[in-house]
Amino acid sequence: MALRSLVVLLAAAAASSSAANIVVPRADDSCPNKLKVSYEPPVAAEGWQYRLAANGFKKPRSITFDKAGALLVVDSGVGVFRLTVDQDQGGTCVVTSQPKKIISSTELNHGLALSDDGETLYVSSSSKVYAWAYDAKAGTVGGANRTVIANMSSTDKTTRTLLASRKQPGMLVVSRGSVDDEDPLARNKSSGHSQIRAFDVARLGDKDAAYDFMDGVLLGWGLRNSVGVAEDPSKGGIWSVENSIDELTRNGQDIHQDNPGEELNYHGRLNDSSTAKDQGGNYGFPRCYAIWNTTNFPSLGSLTTADQFPGPDDAKTLSDDQCNKDYVAPRLAFQAHTAPLDVKFTQDGSNALISFHGSWNRKNPTGYRIALVAFNKATGQPSAAHDSMTAAVDVLSTPDLANCPDGCFRPVGLAWDSKGRLWATSDSTGEIFVLNQNGTADDGGNSIGSRSLVADKAAAWAVVLAAVVAGFFLA
Ligand SMILES: *[C@@H]1O[C@H](CO)[C@@H](O)[C@H](O)[C@H]1NC(C)=O
Ligand SMILES: *[C@@H]1O[C@H](CO)[C@@H](O)[C@H](O)[C@H]1NC(C)=O
Ligand SMILES: *[C@@H]1O[C@H](CO)[C@@H](O)[C@H](O)[C@H]1NC(C)=O
Ligand SMILES: *[C@@H]1O[C@H](CO)[C@@H](O)[C@H](O)[C@H]1NC(C)=O
Ligand SMILES: *[C@@H]1O[C@H](CO)[C@@H](O)[C@H](O)[C@H]1NC(C)=O
Ligand SMILES: *[C@@H]1O[C@H](CO)[C@@H](O)[C@H](O)[C@H]1NC(C)=O
What we know:
Layout: H1 2-19, E1 43-44, E2 48-54, E3 60-65, E4 71-75, E5 79-83, E6 85-88, E7 94-96, E8 100-104, E9 112-114, E10 120-124, E11 129-135, E12 140-150, E13 160-164, E14 171-176, E15 195-200, E16 211-212, E17 217-221, E18 228-231, E19 237-242, E20 249-250, E21 253-254, E22 262-269, E23 288-290, E24 308-310, H2 320-325, E25 332-334, E26 340-345, E27 351-356, E28 369-376, E29 381-382, E30 392-397, E31 411-416, E32 422-426, E33 431-437, H3 447-474
Parallel strand pairs: 12-16
Antiparallel strand pairs: 1-30, 2-33, 3-4, 4-5, 5-8, 6-7, 9-10, 10-11, 11-12, 13-14, 14-15, 15-17, 18-19, 19-22, 20-21, 22-25, 23-24, 26-27, 27-28, 28-29, 28-30, 31-32, 32-33
């Protein structure tokens, strides 16, 4: 009897392991980089490999590569670090140097950008943007900081994302969020809250006073907290990803689990006045929000995903129609609370990679992934329809969200290196990953994810077998 059940179980094991197509662990990963994550590793989509490239940071946020190929990292509350790739065997097999702290400051917390010529480094605190002369060859900043933009203080949303335009060199785009979840002052354009503005920072001499945030060219307002901002290198379009409100009701019903959607918004081109109509508009917050999930949505009417509707404070004075006609709706919406924090286009403009930091106030966690949104190269707009719910396709994701937020990677900053690899920070775990698409099969990088899963499965089978064998002897 027991022997028969052992045979049945072993047969079942063999069948299920081939059905599940379990990856055989690679014993011959020759890459000298042996860094491993200490939690359930994220899993790369087919065609992608990834590897842990560096760890030991406190809260790494934005990253960028300098002209010498070194990676600059803002470690929030610590300063700016520079690390080099000391060994590069191609694919994801990189060995990075010990990070060198080039700026020490507890104030710097998120934004980072290098000027087009690579010789000025911009880093933000919650209230200011500072500039330093930067020498990529030496890997050092020179002299004292200069304040280039000031007066952005606020207590709640404290990141000031920086984007140095490549199409209009000298222009620095700065994104400033709301002061609270639902910020009444953001209704007033003169408050400067929840806005993206562009500044001609190249014009500022060493002795010039800083710009006030209100001096910038308004690219958009009513943008609750657009932490990710990018310029499409192919078409020149400025795009942002917005983190929408946490708690929301409609007709008195709590709809916050699946609404409102996070947003992908368009802001025209900096170098092209014909797109001025796409700039300076009000994108809705805190009056109008984008719908994500239409199922069981109260008074849905003719709304589809990514259309706008009024929040509870404005439902009496604004109609759904007005929210779509008088305010700028997103080009695409994403799952509520996924928290998109960065966006970076591929060089040819065919894809935008987005980091989704992950939810904290949803019953079932969501996000904790890097995803790809396809763009139409001819139009410079997303390929997916406005109301698509499948536009963001996972590249690196967390299979078991039950351990989030504590036992999960939480992607923030993204940057491409000169070999077309995507680098990403994870702030909660203090790590930096490198991702590569279409690498050779013997890269081995993917095995960080698959290997540990294999190890888990092997361990599970060992338990099953041990139980069966024990049962056999007990019988
Ligand atoms: C900028 O320089 C001033 C004056 O030396 C200094 O007090 C401040 O801490 C510096 N800020 C940063 C972020 O380094
Ligand atoms: C809008 O904000 C500005 C700047 O804080 C302030 O001077 C003005 O009174 C505000 N307007 C309204 C209508 O609240
Ligand atoms: C910041 O705002 C204050 C008060 O409105 C103003 O006096 C100061 O000039 C502003 N700073 C800059 C750099 O514009
Ligand atoms: C703006 O940049 C785009 C992309 O590089 C380029 O095709 C276009 O000619 C530029 N427009 C102007 C007005 O310079
Ligand atoms: C939308 O909500 C319904 C009902 O709560 C749920 O079954 C469905 O999975 C949700 N769809 C998405 C894409 O979130
Ligand atoms: C990887 O291969 C896919 C499918 O052939 C292709 O669409 C994609 O552009 C390739 N990516 C890179 C970075 O070569």
